[in-house]
Amino acid sequence: MTELQRIKKVVNWLIFIEFADSDKDLAEKLGYTKSSFSQIINGKVPLAEKFIKKLCSTDENINEVWITEGKGSMLKEEYNLGSQITIHKEVLDVLKAQSESLKSKDKQIDELLSLLKIQISKTKKTDARRGENVSSAVAGLSI
Predict the structure, then answer these.
(1) Same-domain check for residues 76 and 15
(2) How confident is the model at residue 26 (pLDDT cuts 50, 70, 90)?
(3) Residue 110, in any domain of the structure
(4) Using an 8 Å Cβ cutoff, are 88 and 78 in contact?
(5) Tens of pLDDT along 91-142?
(6) Whether the Cβ atoms of residue 63 and residue 72 lie closer than 8 Å to each other
(7) CA–CA gap between residue 62 and residue 26 (Å, rounded)
(8) Cα-Cα-Cα-Cα dihedral of 119, 124, 126, 128, to 10°?
(9) Confidence tier at 8 by pLDDT (50, 70, 90)
């Protein structure tokens, strides 16, 4: 994972814990315009240490070493979401791993659906060339 990818995870985390409502809101809270903030997190301008420090100052539990070097975890220990719940680091790590697994499975499903659509399209074209009823060739297939 790159430094910018880790920055984006922190941004998403800060929105998740409702420190900010959106990227724009977070940009304003950090003293940036939405445009300059977007350029920073999308790698259009060099990432400054000052930006990372400001980002980490929003939550004392954010691990600056993780952002800059990729060592450790995003959060130093556990995170207390007020009176709602406390998430231990180990549990958060499991949730992250499960999330990544689900993203991977979603990607595989999307790829399979794309292949299926291509196959259906080819079948329709082949049957149309033969003069067959295209709807009967793909009967029962719905996407």
Answers:
(1) yes
(2) very high
(3) yes
(4) yes
(5) 888 888 888 888 888 889 989 988 999 999 888 888 777 766 555 555 555 5
(6) yes
(7) 15
(8) -170
(9) very high
Domain residue limits at 8? 3-87
- Residue 38 covered by a domain: yes
Same domain (yes/no): 42, 81:
yes
81 and 116 housed in the same domain: no
Q: Does one domain contain both 11 and 56?
A: yes
pTM of the predicted model over 0.70: no
82 located within any domain: yes
List the one residue out of 7, 13, 9 whose CA is nearest residue 54: 7
Q: Considering just the CA atoms, what is the radius of gyration of the chain in Å?
A: 23
Q: Please report the sign of the dihedral spanned by the C-alpha atoms of residue 27, residue 33, residue 35, residue 37.
A: negative
Q: For residues 55 and 7, is the Cβ–Cβ distance under 8 A?
A: yes
Cβ contacts of 22 within 8 Å, gap of 6 or more: 15
Average pLDDT over residues 44-51: 91
Residue 143 forms part of a structural domain: no
